[in-house]
Structures are given as C-alpha cells and as structure tokens.
Write a structure and sequence with these properties.
single chain, about 725 residues, alpha+beta, Neurobeachin, Chain: A, domain 1, 4-stranded antiparallel beta sheet, 14 helices, about 20% helix, about 25% strand
C-alpha cells in the first residue's frame, strides 16, 4: 500500500466494474470485478489510508479533469501537447491495459510526400476541426447520406456517420503488429495467421491515403507514433507476406521521404505535434474526442456520430439475461471500440500564443519556462560557494525538504554540495526572484561558510579517512534522497554504502553488499530505487522507498562486466538500470528481473581499450554515455533497444552529462558546456565558462543548469528576468 499512488474507476466493456491501480513508479494494473466487488475493494483501500494515495478514485472524469488543473497548465504552455493528451486519455478512461480503450492520438500531418517537412506551412497539417472521415471534403456527402438515410426498424440503433470507430482493438493491433505481445494478439484475432499483406500496416503514406480516399476507415493514431520508433521496424523478421501488386515482401514500415529513419520520423512527428499550428488547433480535436462535440446535436453537426454501442451508457450488459445474446454484445463492444468518457461540455479553451505564454511564465513566481524554449536568451550567473583550494566535487539537483543544522523549515528547495575535503553544504534554492536580474535565488549555507576555514576534524562529518585511498572524491560517490534528509555515500574502505543524516549531522547507517570498494551511486527520479557500482564488477539495486528506514535494502545484484564498474544510472519508470565499466561496455538491465538486456559499446570515436566515464538515462529512455581512450574523448547516444543514435568526439575530458527535454548536456574540464540534440548529437547551444567544470545538473522543470566550477563557484545558466522590478 505504501507504493500505491492512485486508483481510478474504470469501465470494461462499457460496464462500470473495473479499477486501474497506479503505483509510485508509474506502473499500473487494470483489474475487472463485478460492480459490488469493485466497491468493496475501493472501500478497503480507503480504510487503510495509503500514505501516498491521492483519493481521486471516486470522482467523475469531468471532476477529475477540473481538479487536476492540467487544462490550465496546457493553456499556459506549462505542459506539452503530448503530455496533455496523455492526461486527457487517462482521465477519460483510456488505458494501455485494454486494447478496446487504448489511448488515442490525432493524425497531425497531411504531408507524407515531400522531401522536407515544412512545419511553418499550414498545408502540411491535417484539419483538426474535422473527424478523420471528413478531413477530405470529397467524403462529406457520403457521410451525410449514411446518417440521413439510416433507419433501424426496431428503434434500438440510432443514426450514425461511421460504422467503424477511430480507436478499437483491431486498429491498435494493426499499428503494432511488428511488436510482441501485439503480434501474437493479431495472429489470434486473424484465426491463427497474419492478415493478408495488402491489409497490413506497411506504409505511413499509404495508410493516410486510404483514410482520405474512403470514409469507411477512420482510425486515429496511438501514442507510439510520437515516441516509439521500434514499432516501425520488423526487428523480429516476421513473415508478413507480399503485396499483390508489386510482390514486394513487407518488412519495416515505409516512411515518408522527409524521414531518414524510424528515429528521425518519431523526432519530426513529435515536433509536428508540438508545433504552433497544432498548438493553436488541438482544442478543436479535443472537442471532437473528449469534449462537447462528442455527443448530442454538436456531434451531429460536426459529422462525429459513431455506432451506438461505443457510447457510455448505451448498453446495460447486466440487464441482458440471455448468455448468448450477452456474449454477442460484449464481443461487439470489445471489437468495435469505446468512446472515451466525456470530459467537457463547453468548448475547450484556446492555448496561449507562445510569446504570451513565455512572457507570463517569466513574470511568474511559480513556473519558469524550460530553458530549451529560449536558448538565445540564456544568461550565465556565478555564485561563490567555496574556493579553488577545496572545490565542489558533487552537486545535487534541488530537492524539497528541510535545510540547515537548525532544522528550519523552508519554502524553497535544498541544494547539497560536497567539496573535495568532504565538507557538506546545504543551500537554499528558488528558481525565481522578481527583485533580481538573475531570476533565481541561491543562498549559501551559513554553516558551510563558517566551517570553510576550520581545521577541527569534527567540522567535517565525512572525513576523507573513511574513504579508500584509491578513491578520488568525485560526483559519482554521492546521492541525495528525494526528501533531502539523507546523503548516500560510496567509496569507503569497508566496501559499504553509508547514509548520512543532515538532521543528526552524522552517519546513521552502513550497509555492505559488495565485495570491493563501491565506486558510484545513482538515484532514480521517483525516490524508489538506488543503484551502486563497484570494483567487484557488479552493480546492486537498493530499495530506498521506506522513508522511516535509513538502511537501503539490497533488491537486485546485476552481473555482466569483466572490469570495475565506473558509473551507473537508473530509471524505475522504464524498468531500466544501466552501468558503465572500465571494460568499455555499457550494460542495460531490467530492474525487477535483474536480467541483462543489452550490452552497448561506443561506436566510431574510440579505439580499445576504452573506459566508460559517465552514463545517464533520458526521460524518453535514451541512454547517453561518455567514453575515453588513450587519445580521445567521446559521447554516445543509444535507444533503449540498443540502436546507436549518434556518436561524436569532444575536445576535452568529459566531467558530467545530463539530459533535458530532447537535449544532451555535456561539460568538460576545459570549461565548455554544450547542449546537443539527442538524435544525432547536433549542437544547439554552447557556452565557454573558461574554468574547468566539475559536474552538471538540471533543476526541476529544466529551468536552469547548475555547473560547479573548479574555482569554487557555481555557474547558473538560465533565463534572466526581463526587467528588474
């Protein structure tokens, strides 16, 4: 129960009988009950008061949407189009766990023939104000005639424009036929074989053309079109047959001319989804799918009426006594598709123009824009923390929690630093300051200032004598808990991982699982798991989710390297742990099964022997790492499935990497900070700081980059206030 975040009321075959459980690591489970059992389960959950539970489950979807505030966030451009559509789908009952209620996304483009994709040309885009069936005006007369001429003698079936639905299980399997388990489900649906080749999803341009040529197929898209290039590849070499006309064997999906690869298609398609045209018109599509044009006269006027059994409340399965009839109706609902719960009964608000939204965010005390939205406006400011004698070797991302030895509760976040002499600093961070041109507040820990010049051993709670002589103080050795109460440390002579309590100003636990010195630590983004790497060539995943237990608990031991592990990263939401080693490999593991999934090696820019020096995982699942050999330094990007997306040389030794939005941030000991696109590693922003950089972190929301320098200062890169008021 401690890991339960939320429970949503769900429909299954239009019956209000299911629950979907969401856990803190973003995983979810869909369970169907009888209506009475569902109520008992929900009551039992409420009675135990789970500590992380949001208690939203009993709300109607329209109330959930209002309470979430996500519509206003979207209007103000605080969240992306993709993120907003995913939230709307979830609130409206769409789920990955039910093919007949799979998340639905719009076709956003109409140009699948050009050599270059022009996102500034309105003709590039699909008309989002009209259902797919009538995007082509030539189909309008047929659609209207079907609605006008239909009559059910029994009076059960109402008039409709379309006999198929824009989202159903067959449509989802059509798109995902190359990826298991959908391949097996597709074969099962087709009575033990693949569908005939000409009906397979084999070309994006051809699929769009068929949609435009006839109103009988009105499939919208699925989220995978915007983040998952693997579904466009026939990686498993399935025999999908040959086309009748050309006798061509179907393999990978044929891409538009403007896409160089599946990864390039996904990148450009995602850019199209986030473009100004779509941002200005997406509310029209939302009105059709989730809003006031979903039902009633508004739906009739919009030519947006579907077969009756797709709508909530249209069929009462529990009232059907005949089991054969009930099974037939259930099959019809399951195969035809289900219309989402209606979320809005009024027109959806428009999104703010980009310039207005950025102006509003710049004036806000609560939300600053992602710095990648305004790269040309970035400025660099410097805050002195220590000096060049004892520079910082570690800097945490800002964490929420209490600050300082006096345990004063702060409204701002805590920024933890560790210097090479083991001195800990806990500083106050706010991403805004309306009274300063800097646009942020960073207050240096007063106790840190007072202790800087002292030689008393008691002044340093983490004296270097506890560290193994072979270990140099570096950013890999530390991780801060998400509540900012504890600092986890590695590199100790007894092979332990230790927990330092900020409130008690001392170590409170020491746990040993490795058989040699621990060389690196990393924490996931949800505060559930930590990973450590060691000279014993293994990595260990630790459970750190229990806030009342300061002892990390070993959860999984990961094997596969021949030489010591040098760097680690973990993404619980993606069930992915990654480790780099002196053997020149990067291993990718499943956290929960502890299985080695991929072994990656740097390509093109290295000659063996090489050493992996830093590794990180992006929110989208990209694996980025740096490597060095005797002559060169390089950085590399791979997909979560092991495909190389880019490699390049860098001029100096890499001292830190992180990802923000769709960019990789690299810093080095020559003082350069560079942002490059994750796909292809094309540079988009570079700033020479002239002083060797120790590491780099991004603040929540990607509002700032923080880079501690070897001279004792922190370089803060972000958007300054437009005026000093």
């Amino acid at each position: 129960m401690t890991k339960l975040r939320d429970v949503y009321l769900r429909r299954y075959n239009l019956r209000r009988s299911a629950l979907e459980f969401f856990l803190m690591d973003q995983s979810n489970y869909f369970l169907n009950f009888t209506t009475k059992i569902r109520l008992k389960v929900l009551t039992s959950i409420y009675s135990v008061h789970p500590p992380n539970f949001s208690f939203n489950s009993s709300r109607h979807p329209q109330d959930l949407l209002r309470k979430s505030g996500c519509t206003q966030k979207w209007v103000n451009r605080e969240i992306s189009n993709f993120e907003y559509l995913m939230q709307l789908n979830t609130i409206a009952g769409r789920t990955y766990n039910d093919l007949s209620q799979y998340p639905v996304f719009p076709w956003v483009l109409a140009d699948y023939k050009s050599e270059e994709l022009d996102l500034n040309n309105p003709k590039t885009f699909r008309d989002l104000s009209r259902p797919v069936g009538v995007v082509n005006p030539n189909n309008e007369a047929d659609v209207q005639a079907k609605y006008r001429n239909f009559e059910d003698p029994n009076g059960v079936i109402g008039k409709f424009h379309y006999g198929t639905h824009y989202s159903n299980s067959a449509g989802v399997l059509h798109y995902l036929v190359r990826v298991e388990p959908f391949t097996s489900l597709h074969i099962e649906l087709q009575s033990g074989r693949f569908d005939v080749a000409d009906r397979q999803f084999h070309s994006i341009a051809q699929t769009w053309k068929l949609l435009m040529d006839t109103p009988n197929d009105v499939k919208e898209l699925i989220p995978e079109f915007f983040f998952f290039p693997e579904f466009l590849k026939n990686m498993n070499k399935f025999d999908l047959g040959r086309l009748q006309s050309s006798k061509t064997r179907i393999g990978d999906v044929i891409l538009p001319p403007w896409a160089d690869s599946p990864e390039d298609f996904i990148y450009k398609h995602r850019k199209a989804l986030e473009s100004e045209y779509v941002s200005n018109h997406l509310h029209e599509w939302i009105d059709l799918i989730f809003g006031y044009k979903q039902k009633g006269q508004a739906a009739v006027d919009a030519m947006n009426v579907f077969y009756y059994c797709s709508y909530e409340g249209a069929v009462d399965l529990d009232a059907i006594v005949d089991p054969i009839e009930r099974e037939a109706v259930e099959g019809m609902i399951n195969n035809f598709g289900q219309t989402p719960s209606q979320l809005l009964k009024e027109p959806h608000p428009l999104r703010l123009p980009l310039d207005k939204a950025l102006e509003k965010m710049m004036k806000s005390d609560h939300k600053k824009p992602d710095l990648t939205m305004m790269l040309s406006e970035l400025s660099t400011f410097y805050v002195e923390i220590t000096d060049s004698k004892h520079p910082m070797v570690f800097l945490s991302p800002p964490r929420s929690g209490t600050k300082g030895l006096l345990q004063t509760f702060m409204t701002d976040d805590t920024l933890v630093t560790v210097c090479d002499n083991s001195l800990i600093g806990r500083h106050s961070w706010l991403p805004y300051d309306r009274h300063s041109n800097k646009g942020f507040t960073l207050e240096v820990d007063q106790s840190h200032i007072l202790l800087k010049g002292k030689k008393d051993p008691n002044a340093y709670p983490m004296r270097s004598s506890s560290y193994h002589p072979s270990i140099e103080m570096n950013s890999h050795l530390f991780a801060v808990s998400h509540d900012a109460k504890y600092l986890f440390t590695a590199g100790h002579w007894d092979y332990s991982v230790k927990t330092f309590s900020f409130s008690k100003n001392k170590y409170v636990s020491s746990v040993i699982r490795h058989f040699d010195v621990v060389t690196c630590l990393a924490l996931d983004s949800c505060g559930w798991y930590m990973i450590s790497g060691s000279k014993d060539c293994t990595s260990v995943v630790w459970d750190v989710s229990n806030a009342n237990n300061t002892n990390p608990k070993p959860f999984q031991t990961l094997l596969g390297h021949d030489l010591p592990v040098t760097c680690v990263a973990i993404a619980t939401e993606l069930d992915m742990a990654v480790s780099g080693s002196q053997d020149g490999t990067v291993n990718v593991y499943s956290i929960h099964q502890g299985l080695l999934v991929h072994c990656l090696t740097p390509l093109g820019c290295v000659s063996p022997p090489s050493i992996i020096t830093f590794v990180t995982i992006s929110f989208q699942g990209h694996i980025a790492f740096s490597s060095k050999d005797k002559k060169n330094h390089s950085v590399h990007i791979f997909s979560c499935n092991g495909d190389n997306l880019g490699s390049k040389y860098v001029a100096a030794q890499v001292t830190g990497i992180t990802t923000i939005s769709d960019c990789l941030v690299v810093v080095d000991d020559a003082g350069d900070l560079t942002l490059s696109r994750l796909l292809g590693l094309h540079p988009v922003y570079d700033v020479p700081l002239h002083i060797p950089i120790q590491t780099v972190v991004a603040t929540p929301g990607n509002t700032h980059l923080l880079a501690p320098l070897r001279d004792g200062k922190i370089a803060v890169i972000g958007l300054p206030n437009s005026n000093n008021n």
